Amino acid sequence: MKILIVTYYWPPAGGPGVQRWLAFVKYFREFDIEPVVFVPENPTYPLKDESFLAKIPNGVTVIKQPIFEPYKFAEFFSKKETKTISKGIISGATKQSLIQRLLLYIRGNFFIPDARKFWIKPSVRYLKNYLSENKIDLVITTGPPHSVHLIGMKLKKQLGLKWITDFRDPWTTIGYHEKLKLTKASMMKHKTLEKEVLNSTDQIIVTSFTTKEEFEEITDRPISVVTNGYDQEEISEAFLDTTFTVSHIGSLLSGRNPKKLWKALHDLTLENQDFAKAFQLQLVGAVSDDVLISIKEAGLKDFIDLKGYVSHKEAIQIQRSSQILLLIEIDSAATKCIIPGKLFEYMVSKRPILAVGPKDADIAKLIKETNSGCFFEYHEYKSIKYQILEYFKQFQEGKLYAEVKGIEKYSRRELTKSISEIIKSI
């Protein structure tokens, strides 16, 4: 069976957006599926990781077409602000500069569904010709950016082909939508496009249970949950840090700012001399100014180790060496559906996870199910502090580890098997 995957993110793109379908492409042939991947020729990726290029399977066909992206013009206003917004790091409304407010308004109201919309028409023209000359059994579009789903929808309408939509994140309920300065007309256009896509596709795949429930209110099309997952990375043996490293890997957006956690950590440094000597807060990836200021204001300036963006291989190494792994999600009902890919990589590292997020978050269910750590809501200062102290005592005794269970079904090979079964059922 031959399928066409339409995606914006592909190596050398870095970050989590590229890893999901790169992994599926890696394993599809084991399930008698031959993938062809359609990607932009000249994309503007906010993060790059050249190491992902080596993970593209030999012989896989990758076809490309040029894309026009307005981010390059936006850089004339402010290169820094443009890069920050493209990474998803958006300051709170009261701290936004005039340029950032202007760029967000333009991004939200002139580029619907997103700034990659100019890739839709040329891609449809090119793919119509490609599909007429090459036998493809089914097309899959994966977003965000959700403009790729409009490519799939137009091909479906014009050619009547089978089409699956994969939503790595929700569309109109995603947390950052409220920061885009959308007018009522723009918001209505987003909702209309979302509904049209959800009711035109043959099958919907989502990464979380909450997103499935949300979409079931909009469409009666079949919806399957296929989460993100992990690979057993071939990495040299990791030795645990001798310090009590509490590490966060990935972007810390402005909204991911659990001040009660920062306070708990600071108070422990004041109350426990051994903790103060051993503790280190390790931040790997982009960190917003808002979060960094909060951490420093909490009195943790001398304990921060800012590493910036590292390769995926190095990130895995850090996860396996750290004593505690932080997982932080924005404290909003709109983000309870977010299950980041790094959660599964955290799990397989077998280091205890300390997660902070909104009430009824999907990540809480998975952490409990796999016994991989603890989840807290933002306000739970005493519980957070107590748990960190318990972890520290176990660290001192050399007994700190996570007795993880039942994570095999989240391996990317098993998830590819699930996707393959869905593909073959249509």
Reconstruct the topology from this structure:
Elements: E1 2-6, H1 19-27, E2 34-40, E3 61-65, H2 71-74, H3 79-86, H4 98-110, H5 120-133, E4 138-143, H6 147-159, E5 163-167, H7 184-200, E6 203-206, H8 209-216, E7 223-225, E8 244-249, H9 259-271, H10 273-278, E9 279-284, H11 289-297, E10 304-308, H12 312-321, E11 324-328, H13 342-349, E12 353-357, H14 362-370, E13 373-377, H15 381-396, H16 412-425
Parallel strand pairs: 1-2, 1-4, 2-3, 4-5, 5-6, 6-7, 8-9, 8-11, 9-10, 11-12, 12-13
Helix pairs in contact: 1-16, 5-6, 9-15
InterPro entries: Glyco_trans_4-like_N
Protein name: Glycosyltransferase family 4 protein
Pfam family, one: Glyco_transf_4
Describe this structure in words.
- There is one protein chain.
- The protein has about 425 residues and is α/β, with parallel strands linked by helices.
- The protein has two domains: about 1-70 and about 110-230 and about 410-425, Rossmann fold, CATH 3.40.50.2000; about 245-395, Rossmann fold, CATH 3.40.50.
- About 40% of the residues lie in helices and about 15% in strands.
- The protein has 16 helices and 13 strands.
- α1 (about 20-25) crosses α16 (about 410-425).
